[in-house]
């Protein structure tokens, strides 16, 4: 028997299509703008009728497209990771950095630059993932997730480890040469520049794996938001949900941070915007948060290349400039959906 979609289902599905179309338009605009503007017609031809003798086509295919797609992947990863963190901790101010992921990646990359002279973005990528994974594992052990779920204990463990790792990073940078500090500074502000197809492929694969696991956890996350007792009464295993969801956050946020640097605002704001549009059902919140975060980072990266007369502003800075006032407006109007 064929069933008819409800109006709510149609509206939510239409919203996903609209967000996807907006994201595709944003990607094309992002590809077209920069220190050397390229028309949308040329951008279209470079994608669908590539001419290897055309310098603009080469620029589009080898630099602009990987950069724009990396922004999409990083945005989706951070948006979904932030949604999971807020559901697990039932804290509207939670974001992926609470698990020490960002600090772990920062420390590993600073050590790689200072002690091993690594300057390639692909090298940063793997160092960052390694550091984020180790930091996440340490927080998992210190937070005692194996013996029960306690959001406060886990957040405190993440905050404490972050302080320690930040101190270690500062010690390494203070005792390093100026060029080491400069290289670290370029990564620290958050940027998509100079990342090639190798970085895009690596972070894309990890993000795809993380997204599949995240969507499989959508229903368990709904029960986790009810608290440990209610969750158990519904037949869920809170400890297992915490362990699996924490691993997904480490993979998504670790890969994104390693590739683009610490971009802190997306994981905080995108889940709130998503819940404002579709409520608290994580089967819808997760894809909406990912797409909203991707749109924001692509637009921020494009504006960061348009607004300055010379050079460009890092995407991490532009995301904060664009998203901060909008998020404050939501809070002041009390339109945030309570967890």
TrEMBL record:
UniProt keyword annotation of Phosphoprotein present: no
Domain of life, per lineage: Bacteria
Pfam (any one): FecCD
InterPro entries linked to this entry: ABC_BtuC-like, ABC_transptr_permease_BtuC
Any GO MF annotation of the entry: transmembrane transporter activity
Localization terms from the record: Cell membrane
Transport keyword on record: yes
One of the protein's GO biological processes: siderophore-iron import into cell
Record membrane topology: Multi-pass membrane protein
Stretches that traverse the bilayer: 12-33, 65-85, 97-118, 124-142, 154-177, 197-218, 239-256, 285-307, 313-331
Keyword annotations from UniProtKB, A to Z: Cell membrane, Membrane, Transmembrane, Transmembrane helix, Transport
GO CC annotation terms, alphabetical: plasma membrane
Family: Belongs to the binding-protein-dependent transport system permease family. FecCD subfamily.
Protein name according to UniProt: Iron complex transport system permease protein
UniProt source species: Micromonospora polyrhachis
